[in-house]
Amino acid sequence: MGEDSHGHSWLRKSYLLRKLFRDHLIKSGVASDHICVYEFPRSSDRSMCSPNVFFADLKKRLPGTGRCYLLLDNVEYLSDAAQVLNSLNHEDRLDVYVTVSHASGFATDVSKVF
Q: Do the domain assignments include residue 7?
């Protein structure tokens, strides 16, 4: 949590997604292994920003059945993020939630794909 120049407190979007929303899902009965969180580029492994590496890792982490929740923090750092999101959009059992830090060009790219 932080504070702006006027003394108003605020929560970072990353905290809202990774902590509060994830906790909400678990309290709502979602099994923790059905929640996959990726932080770009904070991952200790920068190669995760490659779509091929990301999809391979996601495939290993997703359980075989049931609804899954994919939380992508700072997704604009994922190479070809708009195309990756489009691919994920075709997975019926995935609910995808994203945050972006530098939305200026990214939002335009996503709107073209979706």
A: no
Bigger pLDDT: 106 or 26? 26
The 8 Å CB, 24+ separation contacts for 100-106 are: 100/74, 100/75, 100/76, 101/74, 101/76, 102/76, 103/76, 106/75, 106/76, 106/81, 106/82
Distance CA 27, CA 67 (A): 15
pLDDT for res 102: 59
Has residue 1 been placed in a domain? no
The amino acid occupying position 103 is A
Domain that holds residue 26: 12-113
Q: Which residue has the tokens 């200790």?
A: 44
The CA–CA distances, whole Å, from 49 to 29, 32, 85 equal 30, 23, 13
Q: Is residue 92 part of a domain?
A: yes
